[in-house]
Predict the 3D structure of the following.
Amino acid sequence: MPQPRPRTPLDPRTLLDLDQAHVWHPYGPMPGTATPLLVESAAGVRLRLAEPAEGHRELVDGMSSWWAAIHGYGHPVLDAAVRGQLDRMSHVMFGGLTHEPAVRLAATLVEITPAPLQHVFLADSGSVSVEVAVKMCLQYWASLGRPEKHRLLTWRGGYHGDTFHPMSVCDPKGGMHRLWGGVLPRQVFAGEPPAGFDAAVDEAYAAELADLLERHAGELAAVIVEPVVQGAGGMRFHSPGYLRLLRELCDAHDVLLVFDEIATGFGRTGELFAAGHAGVAPDVMCLGKALTGGYLTMAATLCTSRVADGISRGEVPVLAHGPTFMGNPLAAAAANASLGLLLDQDWRTEVKRIESALRTGLAPAAELPGVADVRVLGAIGVVQLDHPVDMAAATRAATRHGVWLRPFRDLVYTMPPYVTGEDDLARIGEAVVAAAAAG
Ligand SMILES: *Cc1c(COP(=O)(O)O)cnc(C)c1O
């Protein structure tokens, strides 16, 4: 095995050999079995490969690096913000110290999220922000002298991250609960929310939610769901009516409501936050992914004054959580610049433009054998197959069209950067259809 030496450039073959032997990839075996594409740089909506794949040295990114890179890569405003911050300081601890990038970011998040959310915890990844949300809810009830309210209710088909408490509220099948039977906290699950953003609220399902909440209220700290779009759990859309119902039920039964907007936040579904489709505010909200425009890892957990006051009046009157890189100035500077870019433009029109291009581009997939459903909401396009996708064949088909896609389970899907032009959107559409046909 060749040894990497500092400052010696490594050729692509060597890099890929080292990668396979030593580097874990998401949800991957060790050593790796599939050869990843080696990316050299990225600009605009294009990833530049070290070596051509299926004849293409550059691929249009149909994934926004998992919902994150909403402004594309190498954006001059984001680059300048991070460089400027680097000249001042890249990091200082957040215990006992504070700084403008973090304070400005928290103030902006309070301003743009539903009004009752007033307090911000800056975490270093989405999963950690969900851990913090759970800790806030459990500690709120413990502080009020009701420690028996420590379980969570969610619906099936969700995804909330890969650390242990978030895993406990992921879909039991997708989250591999059978692997973790004795380890994960046991939560309360409703069935999957009935599919369809425009579908009417299903009375039987509404009754199921009401019944579960009523029966378990005494032991429930919170309900946690992804509003409107369930992302990595299956790319399913549901009616905002269920969110209004959950808000009513939580109020009626003294249970907190957590919205995990890590995937849906910052315009992706056509509203700035998916909660906006329902016109309801949660007690706790998680943000991540597109928060920094895909530049650096950062997430946030917001809560209401009721939650914060409850915690702060308890026997242990502090929120005992404090990551080493909390409030990282580089990430906060990227987030401030990304939010500035987003809010200073007519993002709603851009997302609508992408929505209509995806509707047109993905429509031919509905005619393909093996396709169960084609759905689009905001800047999210999904083709669901009636069988598990052949990842290698589907990815190759997309690459042949010059597009980067990462299908999973029975899904070929895309959520392009908001800056993707018409020609590139058409190309993404063709690639999704080709991947669905090949997969
Ligand atoms: C991605 C995601 C997470 C986890 O975020 P990480 O930054 O990967 O830890 C949690 N919830 C939802 C809805 C997500 O999409």
